[in-house]
Amino acid sequence: MKRRRRPVPFALKAIVGLVIVAVTFIVAAILGGSGPKTSSSTSGDASAPVSGSGETPRAPAAQTSSQLGYPAFATNNTTRIGGADPAANAAGVALATFPSTTSSLRPAAVTLVGEDDWQGAIAASVLMAAPVGAPVLISAPGGVPAPTSAALTALDPQGSGATGGAQAFAVGEVATPSGLTKVTPIEAGDAAATAAAIEKLRDKLFGAAPEHVVIASADQPGFAMPAAAWAARSGDPVLFTSRNRLPPATAAALKLHPKAPAYVLGPSSVISSAVVRQIAKIDSQVHRVSGEDPVTNAIALARYAGGGFGWNVNDPGHGFVVARSDSPLDAAAAAPLSASGTWGPLLLTDSADTLPPALRGYLLDVKPGYTTDPTRAFYNHVWVIGDEGAIDVNQQAEIDNLAELTKIGGEP
Prior knowledge:
Layout: H1 10-16, H2 21-30, H3 61-68, E1 78-81, H4 86-97, E2 110-114, H5 118-124, E3 136-139, H6 146-155, E4 168-171, E5 183-186, H7 191-206, E6 213-217, H8 221-224, H9 226-234, E7 238-241, H10 248-255, E8 262-265, H11 273-282, E9 286-289, H12 294-303, E10 319-324, H13 328-334, E11 346-349, H14 357-365, E12 369-370, E13 381-385, H15 393-403, E14 406-407
Parallel strand pairs: 1-13, 2-3, 2-4, 4-5, 6-7, 6-8, 8-9, 10-11, 10-13, 12-14
Helix pairs in contact: 1-2, 1-6, 2-4, 4-6, 4-13, 5-7, 5-13, 7-10
């Protein structure tokens, strides 16, 4: 007798409506489902006999793995949110973070940002920090993308005291579903003005000044991306500047918290020393955290520790998130993964098929190991953001190997 299937939770039904198979896999796994199932319509069906042989051949390992969702969706040490675009990735991350099977597993609010507003999205990541806990979802002026709509149906935010009663925060002119009746608008302008407006809302909702302020590039998104994960984890706001001039809106925002140390993210080729001196006239505590390219810049923030700022991830036993350096919206989409679960920094790769040497070296440096008992060891876990067009399965497999627990010493 076949076992009766358990009813599929509503959140999972919503995700099935998304076209992203990887998102379905993630949410199904979180909700305790039985995992993805092999489709009978898969091309090259392994059950088809070879003509004239009468035998049923075994499927190649790669084909079988793909059908089961491994390793493209998950390996021992990695899990992929495999959306084809940031809207799908944001939907998948939100439901991975908030499974939404009960009211206690739903966010009180979400933040909607435009599909062309990566600066607003990165700045809005601060609203994912406690006590607000609002994940970023992607919208547009002309309508709500299907993945966002499906995720909102499942998430069903109802607002709370921590959100000021809002079910959603809308950054700029973006469409909102009719079911969201309590929406707090955030006026958008240029990158600096939008970030300053988000900082003011953050101060109101959090009821306290930030411990630090992050200054990121408004012009070079790869260097700004790591700020999203840190903002979500820490509650530190992100403000923007051009390379050679501190915008008036950013200067005014800094004046609100002159005692909070400012951390400039990026090298002088991205944010000049002249801008650092302009910041120092407002805030005497200015520090630079930087790498010469987006990949090493992200690693610098992951390693940094000083004055309570920075991830200080220089040893095994941590979570990580890896995204493409040319997809800045994915930084905001993935930010909830840095504020829950394994709480890890955002790392960047600049290629679909090749792991950058600097990232490989960093992951090798924090690779976990054990001497006698692996069950008492520390473990690393890596979230991979994007489909195989963004980060292919070979690169994911290499990341998995670098995160794998390894025996140290003793007999080989």
